[in-house]
């Protein structure tokens, strides 16, 4: 898991956490599948206990399958059990299409940008 570098969606999977006083942004990039899901889980584990807004940026995810989707749902449930409010940022890329196909875009608040998620309250 990388925390300080620019994310590269051509690598198998990367996660970077950006913290502020009002929210935490988890930037994800690459392939969110059986090999990437444990890295995302570790990123979520790192922010457990934060009871503010958690924005998960999926725009650089180049591939997501059912393992990645399951890990995302599990992470959301664990974070929300700890008091966080989880929001997603997705575009028309692979993650956004999968969220729409599975209708999970109806159970997650999904935004086009980090700024839009922040402005939503």
Helix-strand sequence: EEHEHEHEH
Low-confidence stretches: 1-5
CATH topology: Transcription Regulator spoIIAA
CATH architectural designation: 2-Layer Sandwich
Radius of gyration from CA coordinates: 13 Å
List the helices and strands and how they pair.
Layout: E1 13-19, E2 23-32, H1 37-47, E3 53-64, H2 66-81, E4 85-89, H3 94-101, E5 110-111, H4 114-119
Parallel strand pairs: 2-3, 3-4, 4-5
Antiparallel strand pairs: 1-2
Describe this structure in words.
- The chain is α/β, with parallel strands linked by helices and 121 residues long.
- The protein has one domain (13-112): STAS domain (Transcription Regulator spoIIAA).
- The protein is built from 4 helices and 5 strands; from the N terminus they run ββαβαβαβα.
- It has helices at residues 37-47, 66-81, 94-101, 114-119, and strands spanning 13-19, 23-32, 53-64, 85-89, 110-111.
- A 5-stranded mixed beta sheet has the order 1-2-3-4-5, with helices on both faces.
- β4, α3 and β5 form a beta-alpha-beta unit.
- It is globular.
- It starts with 12 loop residues before the first strand and ends with a helix.
- Mean pLDDT is 91; it is low at 1-5.
């Amino acid at each position: 898991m990388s925390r300080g570098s620019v994310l590269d969606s051509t690598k198998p999977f990367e996660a970077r956490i950006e913290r502020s006083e009002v929210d935490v942004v988890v930037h994800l990039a690459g392939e969110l599948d059986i090999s990437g899901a444990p890295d995302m889980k570790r990123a979520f584990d790192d922010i457990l206990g934060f009871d503010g807004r958690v924005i998960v940026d999926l725009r650089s995810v180049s591939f997501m399958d059912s393992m990645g989707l399951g890990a995302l749902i599990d992470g959301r449930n664990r974070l929300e059990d700890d008091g966080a409010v989880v929001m997603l940022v997705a575009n028309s890329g692979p993650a956004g299409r999968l969220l729409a196909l599975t209708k999970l875009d109806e159970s997650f608040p999904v935004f086009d940008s980090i700024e839009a998620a922040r402005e939503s309250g």
